[in-house]
Design goal:
single chain, alpha/beta, UDP N-Acetylglucosamine Acyltransferase, domain 1, seven-stranded mixed β-sheet
Length: about 220
């Protein structure tokens, strides 16, 4: 238990440049607090104290704004940054060293029973407001862009953006149209790519119209 706590503290210190000390993690990081409530609730769930586990989980949600079902499986060294609005469903699994930003949902897609929430591999990063839905697997070291909606499994070492989510980089290589680097604040934007392409087509059409107008004007002058 103490080893897990140390790893959770180290995750915050290593991944948040705003964090200055271990004491600050203990006092000021709701994502760290939410994991403490979750890990206690998860133990109670395993002991068949299901109602008590849900009460502990609910109390943690009231205090942190982060909802984690006590039956979910969360690895070591996980970092929930800021965390407000994060929801992790009952059968979700989060691998070691994963990072979740605020507004992330690891949810289901209906009322089916059994495994109905996603599995995240080791080192996965899920950006602000992203939704990963259904019994799918996101491979190790994947990056899910802010606001993406992922409903299909993703191979390891990929970057996914958009609605629905699509892979734009795999094993360090671009997939499809040219994209940006993999910085969290500078992930590829497929909507921007489409708007840019539409603007280029519009510019080309405007140029063609001007050329046709010039030819018509020249023909009218010759007729006169």
């Amino acid at each position: 238990m103490f080893a897990t706590i140390r790893e959770d503290v180290a995750a915050v210190l290593s991944r948040d440049p705003a964090c200055r000390s271990r004491l600050e993690v203990w006092l000021c990081y709701p994502g760290f607090h939410a994991l403490r409530f979750y890990r206690l609730a998860h133990v109670l769930w395993g002991l068949e104290l299901r109602l008590l586990a849900r009460i502990v989980s609910e109390f943690g949600r009231w205090l942190t704004g982060i909802e984690i079902h006590p039956a979910a499986r969360i690895g070591r060294g996980v970092f929930i940054d800021h965390g407000m609005g994060v929801v992790i469903g009952e059968t979700a699994e989060v691998g070691d060293d994963a990072t979740l930003y605020q507004g992330v949902t690891l949810g289901g897609t209906g009322k089916e029973r059994g495994k109905r929430h996603p599995t995240l591999g080791r080192g996965v990063m899920v950006g602000v407001g992203a939704k990963v839905l259904g019994d799918i697997t996101v491979g190790d070291n994947c990056k899910i862009g802010a606001g993406a909606v992922v409903v299909r499994s993703v191979p390891p070492n990929c970057t996914v953006v958009g609605i629905p989510g699509r892979v734009v980089r795999r094993e360090g290589q671009r997939v499809g149209p040219a994209s940006h680097d993999l910085e969290h604040a500078d992930l590829p934007d497929p909507v921007e790519d489409e708007v840019t392409a539409a603007f280029r087509r519009l510019t080309t059409l405007e140029q063609r119209v001007r050329e046709l107008e010039a030819r018509l004007a020249e023909r009218e002058r010759c007729t006169l």
